[in-house]
């Protein structure tokens, strides 16, 4: 089954994989496989605004995955979507401190920038969002509204020229 770009299908496929191999992968020697499947499933659920379903899945593995930057990004992103700002900031900062691969790093910087914006730390938010924008794929920048977040952040900082610049990027002619 091809699931690329089809989040619902991916969630369903991961769920059926878990059901089929549950006994084999929940044992002590294979719990990492179980956690990996559950983590990806939770990330997809979060992206569908089903973070209430995702949260218990991620929190179940939290103690086992505290040194995994990808897991910490997923958990931080889920906390962000649930508006649990302090927990989101803590997990995203920890994920970044563990130096995730570039494809996760730019997303973690973006999510952290959004969290900081929500908490009123606009100076740091701007830094994180700009770090994200420097290395993110164009489709991610568009999907995550990075230019709009930067426009808002710069407006809150009173940076008129940068606000206008990001406004034009957010709304190209």
Description:
- The structure is a single chain.
- By secondary structure, the chain is mainly alpha-helical.
- The chain has a domain of 64 residues.
- It has ten helices and no strands.
- The longest helix is centred in the first third of the chain and has 19 residues.
- 39% of the residues are buried.
- The model has no long low-confidence stretch (mean pLDDT 89).
What order do the SSEs take from the amino end to the carboxyl end, as H and E?
HHHHHHHHHH
What is the C-alpha radius of gyration, as a whole number of Å?
Answer: 17 Å
- Between the first and last Cα atoms, what is the distance in angstroms? 39 Å
**Beta strand count:** 0
Summarize the amount of helix as a percent range.
over 70%
In round numbers, the mean pLDDT is: 89
Strand content: under 5%
Tally of individual helices: 10
| Main sheet attributes: strand count, strand direction, barrel closure | none
In the predicted model, the low-confidence regions spanning at least 5 consecutive residues are: none
- Determine the structural class based on helices, strands and strand pairing: mainly alpha
Global morphology: elongated
Quick description:
This protein has 173 residues and is mainly alpha-helical. The chain has a domain of 64 residues. It is 77% helix and 0% strand.
Structure characteristics:
single chain, 173 residues, mainly alpha, 10 helices, elongated
Draw up the topology in text.
Layout: H1 7-25, H2 31-47, H3 51-61, H4 69-81, H5 85-97, H6 102-118, H7 122-135, H8 138-143, H9 146-157, H10 160-170
Helix pairs in contact: 1-2, 2-3, 2-4, 3-4, 4-5, 4-6, 5-6, 6-7, 7-9, 9-10
């Amino acid at each position: 089954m091809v699931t690329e770009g089809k989040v619902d299908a991916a969630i369903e496929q991961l769920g059926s994989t878990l059901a089929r191999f549950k006994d084999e992968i929940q044992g002590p020697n294979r719990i990492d496989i179980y956690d990996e499947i559950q983590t990806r499933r939770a990330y997809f659920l979060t992206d569908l605004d089903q973070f209430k379903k995702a949260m218990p899945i991620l929190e179940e593995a939290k103690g086992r995955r505290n040194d995994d930057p990808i897991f910490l990004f997923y958990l931080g992103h889920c906390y962000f979507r649930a508006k649990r700002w302090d927990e989101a900031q803590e997990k995203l900062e920890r994920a970044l401190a563990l130096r995730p691969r570039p494809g996760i790093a730019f997303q973690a910087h973006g999510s952290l920038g959004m969290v900081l914006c929500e908490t009123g730390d606009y100076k740091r938010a701007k830094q994180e969002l700009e770090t994200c924008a420097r290395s993110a794929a164009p489709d991610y920048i568009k999907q995550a509204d990075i230019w709009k977040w930067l426009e808002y952040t710069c407006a809150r900082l009173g940076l008129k020229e940068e606000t206008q610049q990001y406004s034009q990027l957010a709304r190209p002619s």
